[in-house]
Amino acid sequence: MVSEAGTELHTAGHNWAGNLRYAAAEVQEPATVPELQDLVAGAQKLRALGSRHSFNRIADTSGVLVSLERLEPAIEVDPANMTVTVSGGTRYGTLAAELQRQGYALHNLASLPHISVAGAVATATHGSGDRNGNLATAVAGLELVTADGGILTSRRGEPDFDGMVVGLGALGVVSSLTLDIEPTFPVSQTVFDDLGWDQVLENFDDVTSSAYSVSLFTDWSGDRIAQAWLKSRTDEEAAPLRNGFFGGTPAKEPRHPIAGVPGTTCTQQLGVPGPWSDRLAHFRMEFTPSKGDELQSEYLVPREHAVDAIQAMRRLSHLVTPLLLVSEIRTITADSLWLSPNYGTDSIGLHLTWRQDQPAVEAVLPVIEAELAPFGARPHWGKLFDGGASRLAPLYPRFADFKALADRLDPEGKFRNDFLNTKVFGS
Prior knowledge:
Layout: E1 8-11, E2 26-29, H1 33-42, E3 46-49, E4 64-67, E5 76-78, E6 83-87, H2 92-102, E7 104-105, H3 117-122, E8 139-145, E9 151-155, H4 161-164, E10 173-180, E11 182-183, E12 186-196, H5 197-202, H6 204-208, E13 213-218, E14 224-233, E15 249-250, E16 274-275, E17 294-302, H7 306-315, H8 317-320, E18 324-332, E19 347-355, H9 358-372, E20 378-379, H10 389-392, H11 399-409, H12 418-423
């Protein structure tokens, strides 16, 4: 169905995981930026909907949901400035394939290439690597459709830019982004099974610095870590040892992070080199990585508290493990983006992929957050967490500045919803 303005209409439906149904009656899909401007200007309440990979109601609204998936990707490489400009609804897998075709690369990818660029940036979604910032740190400029339907552009170094990048959709609809790029680079991925917790924690810095990107997969029980995934840049790093890795042994066949699931949907492993675009994500773009019947939470902890925070999670195994499909530990470097969970500090990400039992998961979240509170843990904005604004505000030095920026750009609260009112604008 097409509206009078030319935008396509679809029922709002539910998110990717199926754990929530959107309150909006429909999703509108403008085909051009002028159509988007008209839509925003005429709405009383509006939220931008990305690829539906959020597990909470950050993208929900009682008003109009708008998707940018019908906008042309408009992938424009600027070789002189080493940037690429792309429409906000473009998915990372689409962008990565085109950049690789032209001989360029992004600095990192998240585990899923299926997510939209604007949605991932707005929530500070990340990959892994001691030297790698989250995906939002690549943003050099953005174009925002503001509450009155106007266009606001901002570039790195300008006032308020660092507050606008991880914007949670509270400032407007991001119609396009300009991202830093670099020359393409090759990556090989090797998985090691059954690492010893004691060896890993005693040598944590050596473990996480052993490759360009390192992920550890565990269910928090016992004295062993199930898997370590090492993604090494073969243009600058020696390949990881083949005979062992902190007590682990090299996998002989492709692995999936979840035990018992075939690795066929995952990116190439077994040390076979290939382009960054086919290795930095965990999952292949051409496959749905799972049925979606899962929930996710994640807490970002300052790197200085990494070992203590990990030990705290291990102590909660009796509560956490029975509800888990798998948990992942990653590292991310510090940034200056106001609402980034990595603001001002190198971090580790403690990611939890839950079985889809939301009441049980929600019951354990306050316990986890209390255990991690002494370490200044910040939750991922797009996943399930318990704390509200009163608990989050002290964790972000620029929290009040972000609220003031939102008040200035959206004085009537067009882009606010119950989630933002509770997690950001509440007391």
